[in-house]
Amino acid sequence: MSNLVSYLFETNALKICPDNKPFWYTSGKIGPYYINTHFLYGSEQDAVNLLKFIDSEKENKETLPKKVFEQTFNHYNQNEIYKNVINEMITFIKENINVDEIDYISGGERRDWFFSNIVANILSKPHITIYKDLSMIVTDSTFEKEIDKSEVKGAKVLHIADLITEASSYIRAWIPVIKSLEAEIVWSTVVVDRMQGGKEKLETENVKSLSMINIDTSLFEKALSMNIINETQFEMLKNFYENPDETMRNFLIAHPEFLENALASDEKTAARAKLCIDSNLYNL
Predict the structure, then answer these.
(1) Class of CATH domain 52-206
(2) Which pTM value belongs to this model?
(3) Residue 177 needs a FRET pair 20 to 30 A away by CA distance; which of 88, 154, 234, 244 works?
């Protein structure tokens, strides 16, 4: 998986903050990394372009699955990073699941489709495209033919996603939609697990959760050994993984100028810093 680790950093899918300059999150908290797994599509710009394409075609639910597949298939044949990521995912699935047991592959709106459509095609499995409004379209593996939803009854489904955090999308939408078809999600495969309880939640739903990369100390150690990050960055990442709030609280106490500079910075940063102070998120 060393190639995948390299791609995470090369595409900025995993972006680590410079020394002593953690990122501001929309919550008003701070942290040492950002994750945008869909950048593994090849680059940030490539990913943004596909999202824009999806949004422009989203009103046509019946035709969108094929159009998204065509976009990802063409990109797979043109972009080396994306092709290698998908090939690694295919290998990972085959190593962890008996592919013959998979009846359908599903993917949820929108970022799951960066991975689920092309994988379904390569593995010759029909695909269930799930929308946020809990509607779905079922197609064959070529995305040419729509399949009657009644045919999904009793099926074992592999759900493919870019990222799992707390599994809220699974609980709210993906699992109920598949259950409504009288089928079940048996496996979940994601590129990145943020290690924030999602896997455990899926296990309570009898879903086997498989991740190609975990955001944990072993990943940071690998990045350090590859000279992608330095010792200072590694220490902050390791401490953040073990206790995020305490680590960032200690940082703010040790660097009081960080909050002051943020309040005097651009509008977005200042708003997040003010939220942090007003909500007393770190009990300073």
Answers:
(1) alpha beta
(2) 0.93
(3) 88
